[in-house]
Design brief:
It is found in: Cytoplasm. Required for the formation of a threonylcarbamoyl group on adenosine at position 37 (t(6)A37) in tRNAs that read codons beginning with adenine. This is Threonylcarbamoyl-AMP synthase. It catalyses: L-threonine + hydrogencarbonate + ATP = L-threonylcarbamoyladenylate + diphosphate + H2O. The termini are far apart. By secondary structure, the chain is an alpha/beta fold. The radius of gyration is 20 Å and the shape is globular. Strands 1, 2, 3, 4, 5, 6, 7, 8, 9 and 10 form a ten-stranded mixed beta sheet that branches. A four-stranded parallel beta sheet has the order 11-14-12-13, with helices on both faces. Helices cover 34% and strands 16% of the residues. Bound molecules: threonylcarbamoyladenylate and magnesium ion (MG). Residues 28, 30-31, 33, 57-60, 91, 93, 95, 107, 110, 112-114, 116, 118, 139-141, 180-181, 183, 197, 223, 225-228 line the site of threonylcarbamoyladenylate (TXA).
């Protein structure tokens, strides 16, 4: 199976594995997820073990189109139903007060739950086959904790293929959006208003157009979200991000110093040791970004240099992910220029 085709037999088999408490990797329009039955605490615990993720990081529950929100959440504000009507199926996750039966493992011990209805046809078919469409699939991105999220089935095999912890990997082609869903917290509307926990393709303005209130950036008291850790989505090779003109100079200096540069850019640049040119639209850039970071991570370079994208509204999501990918690499360019290349 490849592309967006729905292989009914493979999906039925995957649904049975989920019902038995196994892990199944599934394609979504954002990134691939590592799924388990959200109402089976032992199955959800397997996700944490497979990812090497701390137990207090909550996971998103994926539901089928038309799912009963009241089964998963309580005290649901009308704004949540309006956003679901406007953006589901699609790349928006809402944080709501959780229903009483949601396992602690799903909510990371918090009194909230993250819910989203994905739009990828394979994800939808799986959700409809699993528990007769009434279940929820808890699924973080299908990568080891801190790594770049997978946007192809091969990326998932690269992360988990060998260790036997994932019972099935459904192939749904390359994820269309390419970066993780927008997360908006509606669980404390009365006191905090809507809060944007993670930017994504669905912008704060698009949300505001539906609920008449612009989501605020998170404050220090916001619930923990691993996607909000400073260092995350990171390749193993150090990443540095610079504006175009500065990058051009840095590239020349590093090359003159004998350094191997892997370049991720969208405008014209001289050749580097390895490079990927991304589309210059925000959606095109996001779509191709993680595959570019993964392939540049394999290039044996000293550093991955990324041409900083524009800062504006639609670029918020990719800027956020790149800032995290580059976190902890500050000083890397300086270091490479000021130490001799080991011979
Ligand atoms: O696009 C996506 O959202 C992908 C696909 C697979 O759906 N999933 C994803 O999952 O990115 P993950 O676990 O890698 O990131 C989910 C984020 C985490 O930062 C997590 O902490 C946050 O959502 N989250 C989940 N439930 C939450 C809750 N109850 N309160 C606050 N944050 C929550
Ligand atoms: Mg993740």
């Amino acid at each position: 199976m490849s592309g967006q085709d729905v292989d009914v037999a493979a999906i039925a088999a995957a649904a049975r594995l989920l019902e038995q408490g196994q892990l199944v990797a599934l394609p979504t329009e954002t990134v691939y997820g590592l799924g388990a039955d959200a109402e089976n605490p032992a199955a959800v615990a397997r996700i944490y073990a497979a990812k090497g993720r701390p137990m207090d990081h909550p996971v998103i529950v994926h539901v089928a189109p038309g799912a009963e929100l009241d089964h998963w959440a309580s005290d649901i504000p009308y704004q949540a139903r309006a956003l679901a009507d406007a953006f589901w199926p699609g790349p928006l996750t809402m944080i709501l007060k959780r229903a009483a039966h949601i396992p602690d493992a799903v909510s990371g011990g918090q009194d909230t739950v993250g819910i989203r209805c994905p739009s990828h046809p394979v994800a939808i078919a799986l959700l409809q086959a699993f528990k007769g469409g009434k279940g929820g699939i808890a699924a973080p991105s299908a990568n080891k904790f801190g790594n770049v999220s997978p946007t192809t089935a091969q990326h998932v095999r690269d992360e988990f293929g060998a260790d036997g912890t994932v019972a099935a990997i459904l192939d749904g082609g390359q994820s269309q959006v390419g970066i993780e869903s927008t997360i908006v917290d509606l669980s404390r509307l009365a006191t905090h208003g809507p809060v944007l926990l993670r930017p994504g393709q669905i912008s704060a303005d698009a949300i505001a157009a539906v609920i008449d209130s612009v989501p605020a950036a998170p404050d220090a008291a916001a619930p923990r979200a691993s996607g909000t850790l400073e260092s995350h989505y990171a390749p193993h090779t150090p990443v540095a991000m610079q504006d175009s003109a500065e990058l051009l100079a840095t590239l020349a200096q590093l090359q003159a110093a004998g350094r191997k540069v892997a370049l991720v850019h969208y405008s014209a640049f001289p050749p580097a040791h390895a490079e990927v040119q991304l589309p210059s639209s925000p959606d095109g850039f996001a779509h191709a970004l993680y595959a570019a970071l993964r392939s540049m991570d394999q290039a044996g370079a000293d550093v991955i240099l990324v041409e900083a994208p524009p800062r504006g509204g639609e670029w918020l999501g990719v800027n956020d992910r790149l800032r995290r990918a580059a976190h902890g690499s500050s000083g890397i360019v300086h270091g490479l220029l000021n130490h001799h290349v080991p011979s």
